[in-house]
Amino acid sequence: MISRLKPSKPILRSANWISSKALAQIGFEWDQHYVDEHPESGLGVWRLKTSKSRSRKKARGPVASSTRPGRKTERLVFVPGFGDSSLTWFPVFSLLSPLLSRKFDEIILVDYPGWHGFLHDEACFSSLEKLFKASAKTLDRLEPTVLMGHSLGGWVCAAYAVKKSKQARPSGVSRNYMGPEKLILAAPAGLYRSNQEIHQWKENFRDAIEGGFEQMRSRMFAKEPFLFRFISQEFKGFFTRPDVLQLLRSFDAKKLMLKGQAHSIAVPTWILWGDADQVNPFRWHRVWLDEMGQKLRVVQIPKTGHSLQVESPAVVAAVLAQILFDKVPHRFGSLFWKVKGGNHAQGASVLTNS
User: Fold this and answer.
1) 354 burial class (0-12, 13-18, 19+ CB within 10 angstroms)?
2) Phi/psi at 38 (nearest 5 deg)?
3) Lowest mean pLDDT: which of 6-15, 41-50, 59-68?
4) Residue 311 contacts residue 222 (beta carbons within 8 Å)
5) CA–centroid distance for 55 within its chain
6) Rounded to whole angstroms, what are the CA distances from 14 to 6, 26, 229, 309, 351?
7) Is 288 helix (H, G, I), strand (E, B) or coil?
8) How far apart are CA 161 and CA 77, in angstroms?
9) 321-341 pLDDT, tens per residue?
10) Is residue 12 part of a domain?
């Protein structure tokens, strides 16, 4: 059951109620994955079994299903950024809906307690370390084929891919889940070249602690959407909540940083990044490329800030439509994106300027 809502934040409460009805109407089912790190509510999960999943089940029937016990379930799992909700990505996923139904058996959207999603009435995790541990446990249960995350969620996904890549691979045929087969990150945190860059990243949140939401608001967008001014009041108390402040003060957890570890990610990885990002500046993509080498491609989205899913949903959807089907975003879209890094032996013409 979704957490009981308090009478504050009427727009957020109404938006979540309407969204829950809409998600249920199109087939999503709500669940909560309880973990030791947050036994009160755990992590929320919206799960959709796509038409691909339903048609395969119908086509196999009771006899055929027994002859194909090892067929893999293709899952896309999305993890949102700090304080965010997967709902802000819903315009992107709506544009991709026909393609997602062809590619995946299940679409899964993760929801964190205490953020602005369906568990916003709960306390958030007390530390970054607990959040990462709980996320890894939940992802182990969900077994994503493609794992996608934004901002802090991108850091969570990359750390999980590092963990799975370090696990010993069993010899022979095994049904053991060995991690995602593809990683897609959007403006990720967690990997920095120097302590100075780490300090710069932390300053965003120190400013928010001292100056409140308005300090972070100015960095969220390259150009703030017109309608955001009408809902911004709903977010003003977020950075003054004791549970949020406790979590923010744990952002010093250096052992969670990915420097010296990201190179061990064994799967093809894509990063989408707005080049006007003021939270995680685009120039930080270089350390990801240096660390991961040919396994990584970075897609630069011009004139777009940290909330790229809100500012440029059509461009993000167009890029993802190609990436999900193992294509390099086409050069004809170079007005809207530029691709850097990777092994381009596939024949696609790609811009590689820095």
Assistant:
1) exposed
2) -155, 70
3) 59-68
4) yes
5) 28
6) 11, 19, 17, 21, 44
7) helix
8) 13
9) 999 999 999 988 989 999 999
10) no
d(CA 252, CA 142): 29
> Which tokens hold the place of 272?
């989408």
Which stretch of DSSP H or E encloses residue 132?
helix 128-142
pTM of the model: 0.89
CA distance 196 to 216: 20
Residue 30 · residue 20 · CB < 8 Å: yes
Asked, for residue 42, whether it belongs to a domain, the answer is yes
Determine phi and psi for 279, rounding to 5 degrees. -95, -55
Using alpha carbons, list the distances in angstroms from residue 124 to 111, 142, 246: 11, 21, 9
Q: How would DSSP label each residue in 211-238? A: H-HHHHHHHH-SS--TTHHHHGGGGTTG
Domain, as residue range, for 34: 22-165+178-340
What's the rounded Cα separation, in Å, for the pair 153 and 187? 9
Contact 44, 119 (CB under 8 A): yes
- The Cβ-side half-sphere exposure at 177, using a 13 Å CA radius, reads 19
Tokens linked to 90: 């819903």
Q: How many domains, the chain?
A: 1
Task: Assess if residue 345 is contained within a domain.
Answer: no
CATH at 153: 3.40.50.1820
Tokens 């709903």 sit at which residue?
234
From CA 191, how far away is CA 150, in angstroms rounded? 14
**Is 321 inside a domain boundary?**
yes
* Residue 233 buriedness (CB in 10 A; 0-12 / 13-18 / 19+): exposed
Q: Which residues on adjacent β-strands are paired with residue 183?
A: 147, 269
Q: According to the model, what pLDDT value does residue 212 have?
A: 81
